[in-house]
Amino acid sequence: xxxxxxxIIVYLMLFALWSQTGYxxxxxxxxxxxxxxxxxxxxxxxxxxxxxxxxxxxTAGGIGGNQLQLISRDDQSQPDVAISRAEELCSWQNxxxxxGGYVDSLVGxxxxxxxxxxxxxxxxxxxxxxxxxxxxxxxxxxxxxxxxVEPLCGILIESFKPQRLAILHAATPGSTELARDLxxxxxxxxLMVRLVEKFRPGTPDFTPLIAKLAGMKIDxxxxxxxxxxxxxxxxxxxENRMTPKAYIGPFGIAYESFIHALGKDADxxxxxxxWHPGITVPGTEKASASFVNNFQKMFSQLPNTTNMHGYTxxxxxxAAMQNVLNNGQTLNGENIRQALTKLDLVLPMEHLYFDAxxxxxxxxxxxxxxxxxxxxxxxxxxxxxxxxxYPMPSWEER
Length: 398
What we know:
This protein is an alpha/beta fold. The chain folds into 2 domains: 26-143 and 282-352, 3-Layer(aba) Sandwich (Rossmann fold); 147-273 and 366-397, Rossmann fold (3-Layer(aba) Sandwich), CATH 3.40.50. It is built from 13 helices and 14 strands. It is globular.
């Protein structure tokens, strides 16, 4: 009897303490990114953006009075590891939802596990169209391939009008799809593509390919390579004294790290960009500046577009969960999924609402040119911050 009374007294004391201290529960958000391995740089950048979004939400009081707990896992840039990490988060950690993800070979396996457990997954960086065509109601993403294709097709048709265009692409699903869809768009609008050529990511020498391009008198090059590929390709273009009228690298050029690596040789190159400090959706200047400020406080550096993709995916997920609680609903996978389908947000990177497949309906890049070490928006006209320099000056004239 004494022990029973003692337990009751302890329980009442703990309850009183809980009431007085205003104890709040935590809501678990899972995150899977390649924090090591070949995609570690991009995975870490996405992770940093997610961390800023979660920190902002918690500083503002959390959601529904609950603090958010970010549970991060490293997929090591390997699909089989991504599967095991997703199983851990969905089964053992019991997260409310998942975000993060870089490249479709990693996003796809995570999406399949999320579907099995009926856990919403908002992917930060995914392009392959096939993933959302599988009718996975729990997969959402903040980027899509068409956001690259449309502005590239537009500037080539409306501004450059090249006579001898080459489209090069890395032997990866996203780059291959980009080349195919861009060629299709250009052909439909009456522009002939002279060459479509595949290369292996990490190719050690582009000299044979450059000789082929020179022999065909190619005047504009679109290359779907990645940062290291572009750095080597541009250096070897200069070594071989080949100056196209334009060199466009949709992936991996619109970064301060790339500009720093190439120095003045980066000038006049083109890329695409969804967001950059100072380049933001009209009307979101204040929100964009706040993100930059918070990011600098946390990481002592300026954010880039990959950071913003992570930030956007987390902001979307947090907003959906907040809406669930605001409606007095239980915070479970189905209710969060339903809330995601009804979102309509204006964020620095895009006006975000999802189509029936879970793709962002209005995701669209801008074409930028590096001028004096800075990114200048040159397309579309309503977003431009300057005029493009076309054709770009020869290496000898710089």
